[in-house]
Amino acid sequence: MNEAVTLDRASGARVASEPIGSIPLAFTLNGEARHLHVSPWTTLLDLLRDTLDLTGSKKGCDHGQCGACTVLIDGKRMNSCLKLAVTLDGHDVTTIEGLGQPGDLHPLQAAFIEHDAFQCGYCTPGQICSAQGLINEGHAKNREDVREQMSGNLCRCGAYPNIADAVLEVLGTEKSE
Amino acid sequence: MIRFDYARPTAVAEALQAGAGTHTAYLAGGTNLVDLMKENVARPLQVVDINRLPLNRIEELDGGGLRLGALVTNNDTAYDSRVQERYPLLASAILAGASPQLRNAATNGGNLNQRTRCYYFYDVDTPCNKRNPGEGCGAIGGVNRIHAILGTSEQCIATHPSDMCVALAALDAQVQVSGSAGDRTIPFADYHRLPGDEPSRDNTLQPGELVTAIDLPEDSFATNYTYLKLRDRLSYAFALVSAAVAMRLGDDGRIAECRVALGGVAHKPWRQPEAERLLIGEQPGESVFQAVADAVLRGAIGRGKNDFKIELARRVVVRALGQAAARTPQSQTDKRIA
Fold first, then answer.
1. Domain architecture of chain B: domains with CATH
2. Does A84 contact B102 at a Cβ distance shorter than 8 Å?
3. Among candidates A49, A51, A43, A46, which has minimal Cα distance to A20?
4. Confidence class of residue A175 from pLDDT cuts 50, 70 and 90?
5. Nearest CA in chain B to A144
6. Cβ(B43)–Cβ(B23) under 8 Å?
7. Helices A160-176/A107-114 angle, 10° precision
């Protein structure tokens, strides 16, 4: 049984009357089960931003070169611009919106603020999702590791030293727990 | 991106059936194919999503080798404890490539089948014999800083972009393939091909054939090895030149066996067995390493902006042989070159 697509736009003002595609897609998004119909050529990034109004994930290059669209799929960081949404049937997707909320910041979000780890902020959601993926992977032990393993996220403001500081702080916190 | 039909088979036989027609493409991690589809370079009318096929395991082979399922991701392969302990050359090469995000999505089969990153191949407004046979080559006489210096043809000077495949070439891996005519095993040296008169063909797969696994032989060269990659920035960039060296020293300290594979210089990972043989029975040292480098690069042709690669490749060969002999493999985190 396939449910028609429902859009939970933050404003609640617009509800789609037509499914956006023909292929059923059932997946978990930020902890919530979602049942949609999508076109096979829709990327996860476009689905998140254009259909589901989750605009935290950013479209920088749309070619997997900048990392601004990074999300966690089954806990692993990936470029959502290169994932066809239809391939995520049965999977678990977490975006920046699922990591923390205003008033209930994720430790990485708090650390990025504390360490001034951004200027324009455009790459930040991808940086933070990537950093959470780095922590999940468990292969980073020091600053050099963090810098190498965060290399999939470009920051054209050049906040790299502060980003590394923020990630290292949370890595240290998690280690001491 | 053009519109296409979508199939999601759960068994290899089913996938081969779905992939049998013309203008079909197998989709795994999607990190290259989806990008090529966005650029209108790849225009499949049918996409066969193979992510549900049971090809996502790493298994022991009878006789001591390891079988890497085609759908195991690059990161899961590089961090697998068996790969790390027994095939550190492969783990190192994988971790030298792309970014963690890409390696978490990209699969082993997809790594083999990724297309060149030649700018002209990617730009559909420029001529490219690989994309449109007979159209001409924009790179010859054009901006060709990243292009090939060995094994080129007058039709194509593209390189194969993989790091992983350079290590697989040095390890003499084998590619397991399934097709409508049955299963077959392709030695790694015969998997990718040189452009010749048919640059549209990157490899020797027949239409509709599917890579199911990569087999690593027991001989893993876990002691004397290195993967040395030089590029324009220290991380997250394709190789200008890279080298995988797999060496074995005898009890007398002389070289008993050595493989040298180069990346970034040809349409396929480049090996030259006659050059490798110069090392047999020799004490490791600068002069024999230089002789090997000269032999490997003897037929190299620069096309202008990539002329520097010839001397760079010589130096990479010498340095990589030295690293392998000294058991000081290149770190993929600390990029200083010892």
1. 5-52 (3.30.43.10), 224-325 (3.30.390.50)
2. no
3. A51
4. low
5. B333
6. yes
7. 140
